[in-house]
Inverse folding.
């Protein structure tokens, strides 16, 4: 018998993101409301994370924050309950 584990998270449960510096391994937790202006460099080693504010990754992080906030404000989504699926391996670490 195969056991299939499913892990999901409600959009309302998202409170922020974690950003880990590849250079010094510092973990920066950014609240959802601050994703409109995500940090552009590591606060410890000052390694630049983005070339500019116009950088595609920087803009994508800002978009993610706006999108999640909008979805939380408009909840419930009619007859739809949206959940994000997570890989079960996150609990194996």
């Amino acid at each position: 018998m195969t056991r299939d584990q499913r892990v999901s998270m409600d959009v309302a449960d998202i409170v922020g993101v974690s950003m880990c510096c590849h250079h010094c391994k510092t973990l920066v937790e950014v609240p959802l409301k601050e994703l409109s202006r995500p940090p552009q460099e590591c606060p410890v080693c000052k390694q630049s994370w983005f070339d500019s504010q116009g950088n595609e990754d920087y803009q994508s992080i800002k978009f993610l924050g706006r999108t999640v906030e909008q979805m939380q404000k408009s909840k419930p989504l009619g007859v739809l309950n949206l959940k994000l699926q997570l890989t079960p391996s996150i609990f194996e670490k």
